[in-house]
Amino acid sequence: MCAPRIVRVAHEQALARLTRRGLFAAAGVVALGSAATSAAVSAESVVDLTHTLTPELPVWPGNPPLLAAPVARHELGGFAQQSLILWEHTGTHIDAPLHRVPGGASVDRIPAADLVAPLVVLDISARADTDADAMVTVADVEAFEDRHGRIPERAFVAMFSGWERRLATPGAFVNLDPGGTPHAPGFHATTANHLVRERNIVGLGVDTLSLDRAADREYGVHTAVLGAGRYGVEMLARLDTVPPIGASVVIGAPTHAGGTGGPCRVLALV
């Protein structure tokens, strides 16, 4: 990077060199680019399944929230930049096998082909409304398949519990009991094993902070999924806006070497 003064001078000179003709040409390029982008996505709707990462977003009990601080400003060199301090498993994030399994694959070693997959959404929101410890069972999977057909090979299967509605109420998302134990829905370990072994899924997702129900300290779902070399994605958003089956998911996972996971951008193509 150049020194801020040099960058500022170059930035100002570049702006001064823009002629009216150049501006019109630039506008044409932008318009062309916009048209091309619109054409590229016109065949499908893109739904963002990612929560905006802010210092206020709930995190697992004991984890620190995001800390963002400006380290460069436009008025001091022409560019803005922030320093981000966060734990890997913050916000909408991916769990790599290494998160649970010693010697497991780090996030940079998850095959790119596994990050684009058929999307399946199992809705247990009605049960979760009255049971904070609700779990996705094998019976839920069987009922889903009776209605929608068999879960596709190499699918990404997500639980929709409606838990994100609790974000509007402080403390309700983490949902600590008087003893400090969190309560939120998740998958049952038997279900996770069934989906890995019998349906050969690429990964599992939830709209809560943990693949396991929050009060479970055995972490059987993490072990079943990550132990099989698959991945998990936690704290997904807006799963109620995509169909139960038929969409695809694209997971923009980070690629830092040796990472156990990290915040990711998750998109559903409907």
Structure description:
- It is globular, with a radius of gyration of 22 Å.
- The chain has two domains: 40 residues; 177 residues, 3-Layer(bba) Sandwich (Glucose Oxidase, domain 1).
- The longest helix is centred in the N-terminal third of the chain and has 22 residues.
- Strand 2 and strand 3 form a beta hairpin.
- The strands form three sheets. A nine-stranded mixed β-sheet has the order 1-13-11-5-7-9-10-4-12.
- It is an alpha/beta fold and 270 residues long.
- Helix 5 packs parallel to helix 6.
- The protein has six helices and 13 strands.
Largest sheet report: 9 strands, mixed
Envelope shape: globular
Residue share in helix: 25-40%
Rounded to an integer in angstroms, the radius of gyration calculated over CA atoms is 22 Å
Number of strands: 13
CATH class of the largest domain: Alpha Beta
Mean pLDDT score = 88
Strand order of the biggest β-sheet: 1-13-11-5-7-9-10-4-12
State the end-to-end distance: 41 Å
Q: Give start-end ranges of low-pLDDT stretches.
A: 1-43
Q: Give the full name of the CATH homologous superfamily of the largest domain.
A: Putative cyclase
The third-level CATH topology of the largest domain is: Glucose Oxidase, domain 1
Structural class: alpha/beta
What is the succession of H and E elements?
HHEEEEEHEHEEHEHEEEE
User: Which CATH architecture of the largest domain is right?
Assistant: 3-Layer(bba) Sandwich
